[in-house]
Design brief:
Length: 56
């Protein structure tokens, strides 16, 4: 399970880096995709962590 959380955190960090790249490239499309990805991945990670805590 910890590996799964690590993968989610890594993907979230890459999406945050994508925001920086989008700003540097002045690409609105990449910026929006990266921003939505951050929200989805962080929400999924927090939800999964809450479910894991409730099971314990």
């Amino acid at each position: 399970m910890n590996v799964f959380f690590f993968i989610i955190a890594l993907l979230t960090a890459l999406a945050i880096c994508g925001i920086g790249v989008a700003i540097g490239e002045k690409s609105l499309l990449i910026f929006i995709i990266s921003l939505i990805s951050v929200f989805i991945l962080m929400g999924f990670g927090f939800t999964l962590k809450k479910k894991q805590r409730e099971r314990s």
